[in-house]
């Protein structure tokens, strides 16, 4: 079927008081696994390509984007493409021509006023080209090997009043909020601030996004969705599944040299992870 629009999938999830799962992809095996898992669960899904993934692919967006588009168009469930954690304006401007319906513009590293100014410019540009745009306020730590912020560190949590002003002044369509999760967690031990989430959901009039969801236990994810999260980003969980399956296969078959043998095992492990997590979010 034709590519879906991220904004429409998020709106549908919000209306159903559930969340759409958004998985970060790096290789074609990631793409195929996410779609297979979503088809198994009978659920829409968002394929996300991050700026870091583009850097890994020699700085070229189109090869992975075109592969993802081709796979998505053959899927039996709605699939949208989202460009994630974009800091480069040059990369942002490639999004419309590469099949993306949405982008997460990441200026959260900047002081508030600079974040707002940069995001406003990006939002105006994106909206003029029909793109749905997400931003981040507060800091979801753990990107690029950085440690997660302490729960009480300045800026480590999204302030509801500041967020309300930011959304109004920037014009973004969704906001990623910092409520206790962290990027790149390999253990599922994050404890979310559900009271803060409740206040954010009551204060803001846009969909809320949870980043760093790989480190969040199932019960916490369910509570986050019940509390107002409508888009849940997952990345590291796929890499854990793939790497673990490949390591196990190669340990059992040290003579193996055909990459299809171990990549297929890794792809299947990722697909199972996708289907399971979608089930958690839609329970």
UniProtKB/TrEMBL annotation:
Cofactor note (record): Binds 2 Zn(2+) ions per subunit. One is catalytic and the other provides a structural contribution.
Co-factor requirement: Zn(2+)
InterPro entries found in the cross-reference section: Aldolase_TIM (IPR013785), Class_II_FBP_aldolase (IPR050246), FBA_II (IPR000771)
Binding site for Zn(2+) 2: 106, 136
GO MF, one example: aldehyde-lyase activity
Residues reported in the UniProt entry to bind Zn(2+) 1: 85, 183, 211
Assigned keywords, A-Z: Metal-binding, Zinc
Leader sequence residues: none
GO biological process: carbohydrate metabolic process
Active site annotation, chain numbering: 84
NCBIfam families the UniProt entry points to: cbbA (TIGR00167)
Record's protein name: FoxGIII
Originating organism: Streptomyces diastatochromogenes
Originating gene: foxGIII
């Amino acid at each position: 079927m034709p590519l879906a629009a991220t904004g429409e999938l998020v709106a549908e999830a919000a209306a159903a008081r559930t969340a759409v799962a958004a998985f970060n992809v790096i290789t074609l095996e990631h793409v195929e696994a996410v779609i297979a898992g979503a088809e198994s669960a009978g659920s829409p899904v968002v394929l996300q390509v991050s700026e870091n993934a583009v850097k890994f692919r020699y700085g070229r967006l189109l090869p992975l984007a075109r592969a993802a588009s081709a796979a998505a168009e053959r899927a039996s469930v709605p699939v949208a493409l989202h460009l994630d954690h974009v800091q480069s304006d040059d990369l942002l401007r490639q999004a419309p021509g590469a099949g993306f319906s949405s982008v997460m513009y990441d200026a959260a590293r900047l002081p508030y006023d600079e974040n707002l100014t940069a995001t406003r410019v990006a939002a105006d540009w994106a909206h003029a080209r029909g793109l749905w745009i997400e931003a981040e306020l507060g800091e979801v730590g753990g990107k690029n090997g950085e440690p997660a912020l302490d729960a009480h560190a300045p800026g480590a949590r999204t302030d509801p009043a500041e967020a309300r002003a930011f959304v109004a002044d920037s014009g973004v369509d969704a906001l990623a909020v910092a409520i206790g999760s962290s990027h790149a967690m390999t253990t599922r031990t994050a404890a979310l601030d559900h009271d803060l989430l409740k206040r954010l959901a009551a204060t803001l009039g846009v969909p809320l996004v949870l980043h760093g969801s790989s480190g969040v236990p199932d019960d916490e994810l369910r509570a986050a969705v019940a509390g107002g999260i409508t888009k849940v980003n997952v990345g590291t969980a796929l890499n854990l599944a793939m790497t673990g399956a490949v390591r196990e296969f190669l340990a059992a078959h040290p003579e193996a040299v055909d990459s299809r043998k171990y990549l297929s095992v890794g792809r299947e492990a990722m697909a199972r992870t996708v289907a399971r997590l979608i089930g958690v979010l839609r329970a």
